[in-house]
């Protein structure tokens, strides 16, 4: 079962693996033709009613595999308005091959569409790209299709039906058979139609490994204003000063508008000294202690997200302070480094993403394995028990929430240098502001690894964590 959004992401991941969309379209069209051939006899009349998107593109391909039949490929709308290059190329191919086609909307009107003596209609007007009720001429075409005696084979989804919900806002094609691709869609379950799930050559890797399709959109409304894109609080520092500053700057580089650092006054000036981009709030004392938790909670509740842990140190007072903080916090937080040990013991209403390396995972009570597939199963199980999302760092990062597991392969051994985990925590914290935990963790691991690769290209094993900061925003240019 796969949703339309997830299908689009998997599509993009397949392309990044070297399986271009046009190849997927070829496989889809071939699969449709195979089902059509099982439903008609040679010489039967087959009409393919096509839209201007890739759903139509699938049928332009299918037409090439149905040359033995009396086919007619009908395009609703002018070829100039075909919306994608791969659909356009497949339309041009059947034109050059002189397969019979009709264009509706210019000279021919949809009402002239004669489907009376047709044996089989391929419904390729709309698939997962439908928005709202069918407009014209698709709506009339759907009615003409439904009134005909022909067998109706729908491409991917019956036109007008929402692939995720199975409902339609207006008229929808009533199909006898649906040929859907790669995996079934939630909206097909209750349809009164036979459903064929066709493999179209998308490898499991496109779903399992994090890819460009898993990155949240970087689109921003022109009318955005300060703070719209995230205000986060880093709770860190104590013995260490670099870690919270790395985390805070990484959160900015991952798109946050405002980053606050709550750190002990003993290191506040040092942390502020790293960057004017950070807003530093000094906490009484030399480490994070229960006495300042109340004030930190008051600030945290104003934020879109929190990153707790970088450089906190593991003093007993600090562990108690983290425990008290999580006991009172109900928002979204990344928990990293020395704060991780507290998570299994504390009862919190917060939505957490924990980012342990394998040693920290074991200290939390989790199990690990050298083989990443075994590790993935162990981490998924532990995430389920914890009730939080885990990002277990390593050569392959394992991201799991107990329901879904993704594996991130980006990164380089040059990233074992200190501070890269602090950068990762900042990236995940920034994404967690506006993205679901699993997606934020998967995308954070992917982007941090990509930045590490870019840094290693330039500096080899001499890369340092700050090299990643400049390269983070480069990774966001997903297509
Ligand atoms: N891995 C995969 O997923 C693969 C997917 N593949 C195939 O791609 C399909 C998705 O393609 P897609 O994204 O181009 O969208 P699609 O369904 O053709 O519709 C877009 C068109 O519909 C139109 N339109 C929209 N709403 C409308 C309305 N209410 N009433 C009327 N028109 C409306 C819209 O017009 P516009 O709004 O742009 O003017 C645009 O022209 C998918 O279902 C599968 O078949 C395969 O090739 C292989 C692998
Ligand atoms: N051997 C490796 N190969 C690829 N990426 C790695 C490797 N070791 C660590 N990384 C990456 O470096 C980042 C920080 O991981 P790690 O060094 O374990 O964290 P920390 O800095 O907290 O110890 C993660 O994004 C991880 O994927
Ligand atoms: K369709």
Automatic annotation (TrEMBL):
GO terms for molecular function: ADP-dependent NAD(P)H-hydrate dehydratase activity; ATP binding; metal ion binding; NAD(P)HX epimerase activity. It holds the Pfam family YjeF_N. In the C-terminal section; belongs to the NnrD/CARKD family. Belongs to the NnrD/CARKD family. (6S)-NADPHX binds at residues 54-58, 127-133, 156, 243, 311, 357, 422. Catalyzes the epimerization of the S- and R-forms of NAD(P)HX, a damaged form of NAD(P)H that is a result of enzymatic or heat-dependent hydration. This is a prerequisite for the S-specific NAD(P)H-hydrate dehydratase to allow the repair of both epimers of NAD(P)HX. Catalyzes the dehydration of the S-form of NAD(P)HX at the expense of ADP, which is converted to AMP. Together with NAD(P)HX epimerase, which catalyzes the epimerization of the S- and R-forms, the enzyme allows the repair of both epimers of NAD(P)HX, a damaged form of NAD(P)H that is a result of enzymatic or heat-dependent hydration. Its cofactor is K(+); Mg(2+). One of its GO terms (biological process) is metabolite repair. Residues 7-208 form the YjeF N-terminal domain. Signal peptide: none annotated. Keywords: ATP-binding, Isomerase, Lyase, Metal-binding, Multifunctional enzyme, NAD, NADP, Nucleotide-binding, Potassium. AMP binds at residue 421. This is Bifunctional NAD(P)H-hydrate repair enzyme. Its EC number is 4.2.1.136, 5.1.99.6. It catalyses: (6S)-NADHX + ADP = AMP + phosphate + NADH + H(+); (6R)-NADHX = (6S)-NADHX; (6R)-NADPHX = (6S)-NADPHX; (6S)-NADPHX + ADP = AMP + phosphate + NADPH + H(+). K(+) binds at residues 55, 123, 159. Binds 1 potassium ion per subunit. It comes from Halonotius terrestris.
């Amino acid at each position: 079962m796969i949703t339309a959004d997830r299908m689009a992401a998997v599509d993009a991941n397949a392309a990044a693996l070297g399986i271009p969309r046009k190849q997927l379209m070829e496989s889809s069209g071939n699969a449709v033709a195979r089902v059509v051939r099982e439903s008609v006899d040679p010489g039967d009349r087959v009409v393919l009613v096509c839209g201007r998107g890739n759903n139509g593109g699938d049928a332009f391909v299918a037409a090439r595999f149905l040359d033995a039949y009396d086919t007619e490929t009908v395009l609703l709308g002018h070829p100039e308005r075909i919306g994608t290059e791969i659909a356009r190329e497949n339309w041009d191919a059947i034109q050059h091959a002189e397969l019979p086609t009709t264009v509706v909307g210019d000279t021919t009107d949809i009402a002239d569409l004669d489907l009376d003596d047709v044996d089989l209609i391929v419904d390729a007007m709309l698939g997962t790209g439908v928005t709202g009720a069918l407009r014209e001429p698709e709506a009339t075409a759907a009615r003409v299709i439904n009134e005909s005696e022909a067998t109706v084979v729908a491409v991917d989804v019956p036109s007008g039906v929402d692939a995720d919900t199975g409902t339609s806002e207006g008229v929808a094609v009533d199909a006898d058979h649906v040929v859907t691709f790669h995996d079934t869609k939630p909206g097909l379950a209750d349809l009164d139609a036979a459903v064929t799930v066709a493999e179209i050559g998308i490898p499991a890797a496109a779903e399992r490994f994090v890819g460009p399709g898993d990155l949240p959109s970087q689109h921003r409304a022109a009318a955005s204003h300060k703070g719209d894109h995230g205000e986060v609080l880093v709770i860190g520092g104590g013995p260490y000063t670099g870690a919270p500053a790395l985390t805070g700057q990484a959160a900015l580089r991952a798109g946050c508008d405002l980053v606050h650092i709550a750190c002990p006054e003993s290191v506040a000036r040092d942390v502020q000294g790293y960057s004017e981009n950070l807003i530093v709030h000094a906490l009484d004392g030399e480490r994070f202690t229960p006495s300042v938790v109340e004030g930190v909670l008051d600030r945290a509740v104003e934020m879109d997200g929190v990153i707790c842990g970088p450089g906190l140190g593991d003093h007993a007072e600090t562990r108690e302070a983290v425990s008290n903080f999580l006991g009172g916090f109900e928002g979204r937080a990344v928990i990293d480094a020395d704060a991780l040990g507290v998570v299994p013991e504390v009862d919190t209403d917060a939505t957490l993403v924990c980012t342990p390396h394998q040693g920290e995972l074991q200290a939390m009570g989790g199990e690990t394995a050298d083989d990443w597939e075994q590790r993935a199963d162990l981490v998924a199980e532990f995430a389920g028990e914890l009730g939080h999302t885990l990002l277990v760092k390593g050569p392959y990062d394992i991201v799991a929430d107990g329901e879904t597991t993704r594996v991130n392969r980006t990164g380089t051994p040059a990233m074992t240098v200190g501070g890269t985990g602090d950068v990762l925590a900042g990236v995940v914290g920034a994404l967690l502001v506006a993205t679901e935990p699993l997606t934020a963790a998967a995308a954070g691991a992917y982007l941090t690894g990509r930045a590490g690769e870019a840094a290693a290209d330039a500096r080899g094993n001499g890369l340092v964590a700050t090299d990643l900061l400049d390269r983070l925003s480069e990774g966001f240019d997903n297509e």
